[in-house]
Give the backbone structure.
Amino acid sequence: MKVTVTVMLKTGVLDPQGKAIAHARGTLGFSGVSDVRAGKVIELELSETDPAKAKAAAEEMARKLLANTVIESFRVSVEG
Amino acid sequence: MKVTVTVMLKTGVLDPQGKAIAHARGTLGFSGVSDVRAGKVIELELSETDPAKAKAAAEEMARKLLANTVIESFRVSVEG
């Protein structure tokens, strides 16, 4: 079962990578972009077949290993 | 209009960050994970209101700026 964990910096936390992308975008001439936020995505292949249990396991992993919950928020989505 | 660009290493390309997560996961005692792939997610806030045009703009940006298409693949999703 494939589970995707998306980790983003919380609103209000400075995002230098996003700022760099926004700046490069301006230099390259892409207009009409008002905000850019950059984050991480981690795709896990779990042996668990129950979607609810797989989501719970991924959430625990995200809290303890994948995200720094002081400055980052995460969301978990289960596929298939 | 919010557009999310997800950039992942192509299948077959060595993913050291994913390998490191898989290793740390083992050390922390999370079992039942057979594969871990790590990637980037970029959330763009576009002024464009037509979903098709917003997607096309984000795809061009992904090709030219956000992804290294030699080793990375990307997917674009439009929200709202």
About this structure: The CA atoms of residues 59 and 65 of chain A lie 10 Å apart. Strands of chain A lie at 2-9, 33-46, 72-79. The first strand of chain A starts at residue 2 and ends at 9.
